[in-house]
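Thread: Newbie trying to understand structure tokens

Hi all, I'm a second-year student working on a class project, and my supervisor (Dr. K.) asked me to get a predicted structure for one chain before our next meeting. I've only ever worked with sequences, so writing a 3D structure as a token string is new to me. If someone could post the tokens and maybe explain what I'm looking at, I'd be very grateful. Here's the chain:
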Amino acid sequence: MITLAGEAREVALAESQAVLAMVHDDTTRQRFAGLVAEIDDGEVSDGTDLLEQVLELGLQAGRIRAYYGPGGEQAALKTLRRLPRGRARAESAREVSEALATLEGNVLEHVSLTAVAPGSYILSVHAGGLELSLRVDGSGARLASVAA
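---
Reply by user tm_fold:
Sure, no problem. This is what the structure looks like when written as tokens:
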């Protein structure tokens, strides 16, 4: 469950209502109507996955910043970081940072970036006899492999 208040609640509510207004399928409308009701009450439990989708789409499209300004964008980002995929992205970034920290103080031998698929890349860093491969895509950054 996530509690929403202030600007975070306002942005989440307005964005969810905007999506609800565009949905025609009855089952999907019910899901979004439930999300809107939860946000309106200030606590989201059943609709966290849907809320993540709404906020991610609004942030990626630039809609949230355009409609609610930098403050609204920051409120949406803070909310997203508290949701399951946001927490997973933060944990993944922490793990990647820890892996990269093992290379500190070593001579950088080689760095390369390979496009794997649209929006998906592998960053390879060779230093101090180690090779770290990091995958970066829409899900975030994560350690793909470590080789000596």
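A couple of things are worth pointing out once you decode it. DSSP finds five helices and six strands in the chain. Residues 63-82 form the longest helix (20 residues). Feel free to ask follow-ups in this thread.
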